[in-house]
């Protein structure tokens, strides 16, 4: 496995056996915490070694598409036991779902950050950062988590352009189906990212919460999406953010998951 695929990198600094609680050498700390350093780090002292655990921003330029057909139909209002759709109509729906998938290019950035939760004041602070999210709902959602998986994903410009074009051409059936399909396919992209990180976290006896939380939900003000956008460097995905903190193109989304230590056997 190449280094780019690893959940973290290990950098070893050999030095004589330290006496007492000797701090990490300043030369080592200065490099790894510098603006040009390779990422956020946690120093772990182990005998005469310093293990420097880095948690850099990770980029996923291509995420495989999964088409959740039933979820798309449900988003469109279809209930299996209550609605009947003719074969002709179902064929039309499937055509537009395929059309949507053909115009989606899923890509994402993600990182894991250490956090401090203040449940009394309803805040979540990112360690080694000035960023503090103010939301009682978000702090309750995270519970006893001590880390946060931050994710930003986009379906790309092409599908957003197609939805707009279909609307302008008054092809409203196609526009509605493509919009619903794009939303659900992007959501499946989050599931793919979470499964990947969860597999890696198992090695550290940690696990992700199964549910996600996003800025703009409940009392978690949408203005915090600007902080998330910059932390995740979503401009590298071709995503912009408006003055009202809306991501552009459409079908670009951010989300959080809490990470907790696994207790017991």
UniProtKB/TrEMBL annotation:
It comes from Desulfobacter postgatei 2ac9. GO terms for molecular function: methionine synthase activity. SUPFAM superfamilies: Methionine synthase activation domain-like. Gene3D superfamilies: 3.40.109.40. It comes from the Bacteria. This is Vitamin B12 dependent methionine synthase.
